[in-house]
Amino acid sequence: MLLTEIDHIAIAVRDLEAAIGYYRQAFNAEVHHREIVDSDGVEEALIKVADSYIQLTSATRPDSPIAVFLEKRGEGLHHVGYRVDDCAEALAQMVAAGATPIDQAPRPGSRGTTVAFIHPKGSLGTLIELVQE
Q: What is the pLDDT at residue 1?
């Protein structure tokens, strides 16, 4: 089994501050980690839930994948991040099983992780992020 646990559930939001406020009010949740990922054009706020996260993510520029998603679909579930021990191995195994990679090779992610994305067309309609800590 390549998957070790759910790393995060990513939710695309238009207003990151308002989303943080909602989670604070609704769940008494506090942000565990916050980061701008310039390469992806996003700002994220991570709310820790046990050993996983809820990732609230918003666009920092109009051409980012989150901006495009928000324009097409509005706010909501964007992707699921699966934690793996070896991102390259997991990516290769998924491609061998017929998945369509967005990233051809693992790359740096937030929190010092290594990540690779799998297109929803090759993974039962769900955008998947492989996350190696």
A: 80
Q: Is the dihedral of CA 93, 98, 99, 102 positive or negative?
A: positive
Q: How many domains does the chain have?
A: 1
Q: Under a CB-based contact definition with an 8 Å cutoff, are residues 75 and 14 in contact?
A: yes
Those residues whose C-beta lies under 8 Å from the C-beta of residue 64, and which sit 6 or more positions away, are 40, 41, 42
Domain ranges, residue 81: 3-132
Instruction: Please count the other Cβ atoms lying within 10 Å of the Cβ belonging to residue 124.
Output: 8
pLDDT tens digits, residue range 15-34?
999 999 999 999 999 999 99
Q: What's the farthest any 2 CA atoms get from each other in the chain?
A: 44
Contact 5, 124 (CB under 8 A): no
Report residue 118 as tokens.
Answer: 């799998």
